[in-house]
Specification:
six-stranded antiparallel sheet
C-alpha cells in the first residue's frame, strides 16, 4: 500500500515538475497516457509493478477482465503481458541529454506481428521525426532474389515481423512468414529472404546494420 501511495504521488507530481534524473522504465509505464496501454489504467500498472517487485505471480485484471502482468523489469526496460495475445516492451533510450521511450506492441493472433512507437519522456509522440522507418520488402530480399522480385511480391502481401529491442539499443526484426503463409508458398520465397534485420540506436535514430 505504501508503494502504491508513493507511486500515486509521483504520478500526480509528474504533471507539474520536470522528469528527474532518476527516470526509469517503471515510472514511464505508470505515467504513460491511456492510449498507449489502453487495457491497463495507471492504478492497475502500479499494482503490476508492486506484484512484480514483491516476487508475486499474481496477475492484475485489465479492463477486459483479462489478466495482465509484468514479466521483466529493470531501470531501462519493462516487459508486460497485457492479454493472452498481446505483450509490450517499454525501453528507455538515450538521445543526448534527453531520454526517448520506445514502446513495442506485439500481437500473437494468428501470427506474431509487432509495431514500435517512440515518445519523449513527457510522452509526446516522435512520429513526425521518424526515428525509425519500417523496412520494405526490398530490405528483406537477399541478392539471390534479383530477377524474382515480381514472383515474390505475388506471394507476399505483407511481412509480419516480431520486434526485439535490447537495453543496449539493438533492435532485431524477425519475420514470421512461416506462420502466415501456406507451406507451398513459403517454400517458394524462403530462400530469397533474410530471416532477420538488425538496427542500432544511434544519434536518436534506429540505423539499419548492414
Amino acid at each position: 500500500m505504501i508503494k502504491r501511495l508513493a507511486a500515486a504521488a509521483m504520478l500526480a507530481l509528474a504533471a507539474t515538475f520536470p522528469i528527474s534524473a532518476q527516470y526509469n522504465a517503471g515510472q514511464a509505464f505508470i505515467e504513460a497516457p491511456r492510449d498507449v496501454f489502453p487495457l491497463v489504467n495507471a492504478m492497475t500498472r502500479m499494482d503490476m509493478i508492486d506484484y512484480f517487485e514483491s516476487g508475486s505471480q499474481t496477475p492484475s485484471n485489465n479492463v477486459m477482465e483479462g489478466k495482465s502482468r509484468i514479466t521483466e523489469m529493470s531501470p531501462t526496460m519493462l516487459k508486460a503481458e497485457i492479454s493472452p495475445v498481446s505483450s509490450y516492451t517499454l525501453t528507455l533510450l538515450p538521445a543526448g541529454r534527453d531520454t526517448i521511450v520506445a514502446v513495442i506492441q506485439t500481437l500473437n493472433v494468428p501470427f506474431v506481428d509487432s509495431s514500435i512507437q517512440f515518445y519523449t519522456d513527457s510522452w509526446d509522440s516522435l512520429e513526425k521525426k521518424k526515428p525509425f522507418t519500417a523496412p520494405t520488402l526490398a530490405d528483406w530480399l537477399l541478392p539471390a532474389a534479383k530477377g524474382h522480385e515480381k514472383d515474390i511480391e505475388n506471394v507476399i502481401d505483407f511481412i509480419p515481423v516480431a520486434y526485439n529491442l535490447e537495453s543496449n539499443g539493438r533492435l532485431t526484426l524477425t519475420h514470421s512468414l512461416i506462420d502466415m503463409l501456406v507451406e507451398d508458398d513459403f517454400d517458394k520465397v524462403k530462400e530469397y529472404l533474410r530471416p532477420t534485420l538488425s538496427y542500432q540506436w544511434k544519434g536518436g535514430k534506429m540505423v539499419m546494420m548492414k
